[in-house]
Amino acid sequence: MKRLLALAVIAALVACADMRIPGMGDGWETLIDGEKGLENFDRVGDANWRAEGGAIVADKGKSGFLVSKKSYKDFEIRAEFYAEADTNSGIYIRCSNRQKLSGNKADTCYEVNIWDTRADPRYGTGAIVDVAAVAVPLQNKAGGRWNTYEITAKGPLMTAKLNGVQTASGQHAKLPEGPIGLQYAAGGASNTQGGPIKWRKVQIRPL
Q1: N or C terminus: fewer CB in 10 A for the chain?
Q2: What is d(CA 91, CA 87) in angstroms, rounded to the nearest whole number?
Q3: Average pLDDT for consecutive 10-residue bins of the chain (207 residues)?
Q4: Contacts of 52 (CB under 8 A, 6+ apart)
């Protein structure tokens, strides 16, 4: 009888472990969860960030960023986002200047891009701008649906996965640590109004 009771207890504990909520107790820090999370960021620029419809949203104004209050060195990011085909956005990592974020030439940040209609598609959605071009042409890009980015930065090596498919991997050692930034831009060089960006969940786990 005691043995049966012990086996039942063990089975219950295993079941509880399998039901563990992702992001809880496994090192993940949740920065955005539905309409919660703006308090974890500073705003840079003129984007109209707000909580709406179960997400953090921006869809008007000039370029702007949500910049994390914490800095990170080696880490994994999981981010759920919605974009249109003409949305110009991205996840900026290891930014060296909180007030001047740029992914161009990897001078102050590394940018994991979200921009299906970028003039140079090599560094469009799925790429790490000016570090690692998209490894294979994306048949189904981000526009018009919810997507998941998985980003890993460990030492100089950085990788990006979009919806479970690795899209870019490269090495760059100039920027070892810094906050992350979530971008909304007006549409690029043409300065036309692009589509919205919505962040439903953003989590980070230091390595």
Answers
A1: N
A2: 13
A3: 47 44 72 98 95 95 92 98 96 95 92 94 95 82 96 98 96 97 76 84 98
A4: 35
Q: Is 126 helix (H, G, I), strand (E, B) or coil?
A: coil
C-alpha dist (Å) from residue 33 to 72, 113, 134, 160: 19, 21, 28, 21
Q: What is the CA radius of gyration of the chain?
A: 19
- CB neighbour class for 202 (10 Å; exposed up to 12, middle 13-18, buried from 19): buried
Measured CA to CA, the distance from residue 41 to residue 34 in angstroms comes to: 15
What is the β-pairing status of strands 41-45 and 55-58?
A: unpaired
Instruction: Give pLDDT, residue 186.
Output: 76
Burial of 164 from C-beta contacts in 10 A (0-12 / 13-18 / 19+): exposed
Q: Which domains does the chain have, with CATH numbers?
A: 29-206 (2.60.120.560)
Per the DSSP assignment, residues forming a β-bridge with 162 are: 149, 165
User: In 69-179, at which residue ranges do the beta strands (DSSP E only) sit?
Assistant: 75-83, 88-93, 110-114, 145-154, 157-162, 165-171
The angle formed by the CA atoms of residues 171, 166 and 101, to the nearest 5 degrees, is: 50
157-162/165-171 β-pairing: antiparallel
Identify any residues that bridge with 92 across adjacent strands, giving them in sequence order: 111, 181
